[in-house]
Amino acid sequence: MSIKSIKILNVMAFQRQWNKNNEDSKEFDSKKGDIISQGFALKFCDGINILIGENGAGKTTILKMIYAATQWSMSKKDAGKTQRLTQFFSHNLSDVDLLKNKSGDGYAYFEVSDGRHKFTDSLSHKEILDCGDWFGLNIPSVFIPTMEMLSHSQGFLALNQKYKLPFDSTQVDIIVNASLPESRQLPDYMNTILGKISDVIDGTILMENDTFYVLKKDGRKMDFSLEAEGLRKLGLLWKLIRNGLLENGTVLLWDEPEANLNPELFPIVVDILLELETAGVQIFIATHSYNLAKWFEIRRKFKEQVQYHNLYKETSEVEKEYLLPEESISQETGVFGKSAYYLSELNGNKIVDADDRLLDEALKKNLGD
């Protein structure tokens, strides 16, 4: 089972989109040329989905919406998984109205679907709607946040239960997942992946007395917080695999895996994630790195294994008949999405544009010298 699509309307950056209808609609009372409103929508591949786009375009928001939906799918098994979307942004947020976009115009919701079932969270009604058999699907998922959390593990979970710490559920959950007991037996291919990560971090990860350590191959036991942050990220991945959390049917969501990671390690991380995908893990990544994104295109075994989703903001003047004449032309800014199997097919790709500008500047500099 995999996540197939997401729809979003009037939540955070995802404002209502106004477009000119290109054809007569069979479902709605609209004709060709009419101005119609739509929500944001994306379709995903079963393999690795890479979200790219400028800051504030909603990449992390999409990851957290998918994570929230998968957590609710476990509600019959674990009632503690049933948290509203606000909790995945901050435990200090209690009003879902804060997640509605600034226009506050109309209905606000998001919907995640696996193609047969769907999960709908209505921020307008402040309740979960139209979920059918979603509860009980038990879709296992792991979210790796941008902030490295294992260095803060000592006493964290106990304190978080007692006090309202300024962390969101993704940051709490990653400590919980890393703290779980190790799996008794792993498939051979998982042990192979563990070996590759172990070679990079020069050891393995263990937990003692609520604290994580890197057990180096020469026998030294290093406090996790003393390890280089990029290697800590790989150490976390090692622990999640060792705990049996990244197996067939799991959804892995990783926010900015390139953060604090030496670019020479990108191909290693890409190869590991491609192997996990081959093993049946569906993966969602949000990134600002052209190099990381391109490595997936180079290393994948077949085109459909990796799909790119470019999120971009667009402002347009749209005529709305229901407004007063002097207000009939309205500036509307919304987030749009375009998907492709090749980076070169994504127009308005900010990370590619940034690389092109750098190359142009370098050429001008060299020619000037």
Describe this structure in words.
This is ATP-binding protein. Keywords: ATP-binding, Nucleotide-binding. 28% of the residues lie in helices and 25% in strands. The protein has 8 helices and 16 strands. The protein has helices spanning 59-72, 156-162, 169-179, 188-201, 229-242, 266-278, 290-299, 350-368; strands spanning 5-9, 17-20, 35-38, 40-43, 48-53, 109-113, 118-122, 127-129, 141-144, 203-208, 211-216, 221-223, 251-255, 282-286, 306-319, 329-340. The chain has a 6-stranded mixed beta sheet with strand order 9-13-14-5-15-16, sandwiched between helices. Strand 10 and strand 11 form a beta hairpin. It is globular and about 60 Å long.
At the fold tier of CATH, the topology name of the largest domain is Rossmann fold
Residue fraction in strands: 15-25%
The tally of structural domains comes to 2
Given as residue ranges, the uncertain stretches (5+ residues, pLDDT < 50) are 24-30, 319-330
The beta-strand count equals 16
How widely separated are the two ends?
A: 57 Å
Q: Report the top-level CATH class of the largest domain.
A: Alpha Beta
Helix content: 25-40%
Strand order in space, largest sheet: 9-13-14-5-15-16
User: In angstroms, what is the radius of gyration?
Assistant: 22 Å
Spell the H/E element sequence.
EEEEEHEEEEHHHEEEHEHEHEEH
Taking the sheet with the most strands, its summary is: 6 strands, mixed
